[in-house]
Amino acid sequence: MSSDPLNPPRSKFGRQSTAEEVTAGLDLRGKCAVVTGCNSGLGLETMRVLSLRGADVIGAARTLEAARTACAKIKGNTRPIACELTDLDSIAKCADELSSSAPPLDMLICNAGIMMLPKLEQIRGVEKQFATNHVGHFLLVNRLLARVKAAPQGRVVMLSSTGHASAPKAGIEFDNLSGEKHYRPLAAYGQSKLANILFAVGLARRLRGTTATANALHPGVIATNLGRHLSPVLGAVFRILSFSPLLKSIPQGAATTCYVATSPALAEVSGVYFSDCNPKTPSPQARDGAMAERLWAVSEELVQGYL
To answer: Which of 183, 189, 273, 306 is catalytic?
Structure first.
């Protein structure tokens, strides 16, 4: 935990910075990173830049074929692995393979996600965005936590979103994780992104006294295939916005991820939310320690038998 977690250091980087710029001069040789959702967008750019700086990068995608295709695009040491975040058996298999064959994990970057499914879909009785964005990563991180702790300064990096502020007013609706009482695409997405921050908060508390850290971040608004599930109307708006100067490019969108994963200045910073490569105060719900603890307990129940 940072010696002053209420006042983490600020960087010289900002909204226009790129992933290459925030890692310039860093030598990541000898370090190992896992990146989920490596096959496109921010995940692919994150993998490319970390590899460019010398890291060995394990790219995880829903299928081994997709991961192989992504890794083949990268110059450097990469390794593909399958990890379908809606399938607990796939997650367990991925984690077991990495636990037995990978070196200590200096960076575990939970980048994969889905956004604003137009209709309610469920995975094992849980709304699909929550199951994918939060529950799947909760299981993966916990099963790999020993490998993160084994690194000199292991970092868990959770990609959340400013959309976490669109979660229901109560925060996590523990009595409606199925989505059956009511379902609103944006609120459900916001709930899953709120869960990403609360997970980082809960994990940071559990990592106190170790050299490992956990932080969450908003990468920015970027035109990637994350918006592939948007309704036709929202999809059209998103495509129009893709030409707006308000949006970040993919290299800019991957900057905060790469900064939080690699910056020497953040070696002792844990439990913090970042945006534009700097600390940012999230919503009140995202700072609710009691909610973070309840989420942890409920998440353990949801993956019972797999931890």
So the answer is: 183
Taking the mean position of all CA atoms in its chain, how far away is CA 242? 22
Alpha helices, DSSP H, located in the chain: 19-22, 41-52, 64-72, 88-101, 128-130, 137-149, 185-206, 232-241, 250-253, 255-262, 289-302
Say how many domains are in the chain. 1
The residue segments making up the domain with residue 218 are 19-302
Instruction: Please tell me the pTM assigned to this model.
Output: 0.93
- With respect to residue 307, please indicate whether it lies within any of the assigned structural domains: no
Q: Is 259 a catalytic residue?
A: no
What phi and psi, each to the nearest 5 degrees, are found at residue 283? Answer: -65, 160
Chain center to CA of 53: 20
- Does the pLDDT of residue 235 top 60, yes or no? no
Residue-level pLDDT at 225? 54
Residue 241 domain-assigned (yes or no)? yes
CATH of the domain at 58: 3.40.50.720
Mean pLDDT throughout 25-34?
98
